[in-house]
């Protein structure tokens, strides 16, 4: 699924890590109704505080996203329910709801992506760094942006890789990379749009990576 520029004529709205935020979800729905193409940046659940119905929230978000043709990116807090047998659990894991959440995630698994390209922009939860790109080139012979994104969307084991420090070392997969680990730009001519690393109050730029996890919607006008 990609951007239908007639249906969503105004541009793109990136929805940063929801973490069961009802207010942000309502804002996202309004933005879509106003003509923006929604891209969910991952981490739909795990609010780190009490929520009355995490499975219900997850299902509402995913049913809405599918109904409007949104791009749904996989975050690390989504992956540890979708792939419980070989990934995680990480901080915030809701053990009480793990089987319900896992069932819902796997019901909608075919709608998830690890990365997505629109024009010259690559959308991914954590980011694609030099170490990951070098690993994919050495192991699989791929380095072209379109080929890398297509490969990552097959959910290879590389998506789970995380170095010491939870993503700040640069030795990290696309669900985990943090701006501090993005030490050299990759993919000349492309901009990476990422979530994952919560920022207080303002969007930040590192090389050709824009970090948008501020708790607010991020708009890219047409």
Q: What would you say this structure looks like, in words?
A:
- It contains six helices and ten strands; from the N terminus they run E-H-E-H-E-H-H-E-E-E-H-H-E-E-E-E.
- It has a single domain (11-221), classed as Metallo-dependent phosphatases (Purple Acid Phosphatase, chain A, domain 2).
- With 222 residues, it is an alpha/beta fold.
- The chain has a five-stranded mixed β-sheet, covered by helices on one side. The protein has a five-stranded mixed β-sheet with strand order 5-6-7-9-8, with helices on one face.
- Strand 8 and strand 9 (209-211) form a beta hairpin.
- The mean pLDDT is 92.
- The chain is 28% helix and 17% strand.
The helix content is: 25-40%
Q: Write the CATH architecture name.
A: 4-Layer Sandwich
Number of contiguous helices? 6
Q: How many independent structural domains?
A: 1
End-to-end distance: 18 Å
SSE-based structural type: alpha/beta
According to CATH, the fold-level topology is: Purple Acid Phosphatase, chain A, domain 2
Any low-confidence stretches, pLDDT <50, length ≥5? none
Query: What is the overall shape?
Result: globular
- Our Rg estimate from Cα atoms comes to 16 Å
CATH superfamily membership: Metallo-dependent phosphatases
Largest sheet geometry: 5 strands, mixed
Q: How many distinct beta strands?
A: 10
Give me the side-by-side strand order of the main sheet. 4-3-2-1-10
Q: How large a portion of the residues is in β-strands, by DSSP E?
A: 15-25%
